[in-house]
Amino acid sequence: MRAAPVKTSGSAGRTGPSGPEAAPPPRVTAADIEELARRLLDPVSRLIRADLRRGRERSGRLHDGRR
After folding, report:
1. What's the CA gap between 64 and 60, in Å, rounded?
2. Domain residues of the chain, as ranges?
3. pTM of the complete model beyond 0.70
């Protein structure tokens, strides 16, 4: 019994078209950056506050002292 030969496409290793027919990367606008910054602000600030709180707990100072 013989195995059938493996058929390979001519574009081995390529993920998409290249050359003049390739689509340009999407443009990032200032509005996109503003929206991303607004969406990231709350989670990042929450993580920073938690990290500062853990640092104060490790050093034995439970309160910031500035307030």
Report:
1. 11
2. 30-58
3. no
